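TEACHING EXERCISE
Course module: macromolecular assemblies
Task: Read the component lines below, then compare them to the predicted structure of the full complex.
Student: A.B.
Group: 4
Components provided:
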Amino acid sequence: DAGITQSPRYKITETGRQVTLMCHQTWSHSYMFWYRQDLGHGLRLIYYSAAADITDKGEVPDGYVVSRSKTENFPLTLESATRSQTSVYFCASSESGSSYNEQFFGPGTRLTVL
Amino acid sequence: GDSVTQMEGPVTLSEEAFLTINCTYTATGYPSLFWYVQYPGEGLQLLLKATKADDKGSNKGFEATYRKETTSFHLEKGSVQVSDSAVYFCALIFYQKVTFGIGTKLQVIP
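Instructor-supplied answer key:
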């Protein structure tokens, strides 16, 4: 399917477990992003990537790890999940880092940490 | 740093009412401004954008004007429909950095 996809769409895990959220885009966009959405906070940037093998921290990176070995994939790993990481996670991509380019969002992954 | 301020809502309107959702921003550079919409259970979709001062973005009957003098980008629609019920996010983008507002929930009742 064309576009940007995320998997799984829903995930329940326990405190201390490692969880990986997947993101895949078919447009060959250079930039990819991970956000978390929480009530009262809107969307907050976790990590972003300008290209394969180039990643950088966003506003709330603690507790998360990313990698980008291929342009189309940008997985987000919670190395040891905590309850405060219960959230909805959105992946996004953009053609470039220009201010003129919109970001395209995936459908989101709802993660619950018990 | 950059910031975006918008009312959280919810905003409840009757069908065919006039809509205004206020958005103001602070920015150190010259960002582009965006409105995104999120329907229940979905990701964000671009609604409209403006890339420089005095630009007007419009789409699906919605419009917003980039006002540099008042640092605002208010969203308006002349006649809302039930199908417009969603959460609306104002955002500014300065190169790869995006700053979102907290989102305003709109509920339109028949």
